[in-house]
Amino acid sequence: MKYIIGHISPDTDTICSALVYEDYLKQKNIEAKAYALGHLNNETKFVFKKFNVKEPEHIHEIPKNSEIILLDHNEETQSINNINDLDIVEIIDHHKVKLETDKPIRIHIEPLGSSCSIIAKKYFKSGREISPQNASLLLAGIISDTLHFRSPTTTDQDKELTEKLNKIAQIEDLEKFSLEMFNAKSDLGNIDTEELIKLDYKVFDFAEGQKFGIGVMETTDKEFGLKRKDEIVKKLKEIKEKDNLQGIYFMIIDILEEEGYTLCADEEDSKLFIKLFNTEDQNGVLFVDNVVSRKKQIMPIFQQYFNK
Ligand SMILES: [Mn+2]
Known about the structure:
single chain, alpha/beta, Diaminopimelate Epimerase, Chain A, domain 1, 2 domains, 6-stranded mixed beta sheet, 5-stranded parallel beta sheet, 11 helices, 19% strand, globular, binds manganese (II) ion
């Protein structure tokens, strides 16, 4: 049995692509099961409820030497704890590659807007049948990761695949559906501060000893995050120290306005961000316009800086 896993701090794309890939492999008579590495966010929960889908089981450790398939990630820092005891047999992803394997494995990486786009392509290419439910999940993953085509990570293929998938899923108004998803994601109730920071959080190893944590909150209600600024900054400091990070950032992304508001742990992190993004400190908030994508607009700038 192969374990299909997405990344930690799971989002809609990682969960839906893993779950639908389980079905794809089943159709090929390959025994595999999708698991979630942590709690689903409210957007994903909304999607599962709307389409009447059972949530994948959570898992925190996988038995030694098991075969695993990585969906929507390829970096150890974003995967299951005991990844070094496991046998990675396949990777499907749309992120930059940071990878070393000890044997040849199957790898399918494409610069598309979502991992769900890659899974959808596999179905269409092979002629395998997609159920309306699975088509809906793939659509949700594409819409979530591309912010319904607002993100610069969006490609023409994502748009074409969305159209093809919706012939099966038959969602009447996709823009309305996407707003429902974003509002569900933004509705965080009285979420704990650390949970908020880690909702969509990744640690990147930019260079030797240069680990950075970057959390993103994509929202239609930026005030929810901004008014908790002080406690967020305090928690960022704690995480930075506890996890021995070089820096840590929390970006509140206004999906509809396409703006980013960044909070940082301390002066050192703030200085670096101001330098890299040519912005200024406004009462502890670093504003950047037209920046919505960690992958395409944030990460490359850090990476370039550290590669120099
Ligand atoms: Mn993704």
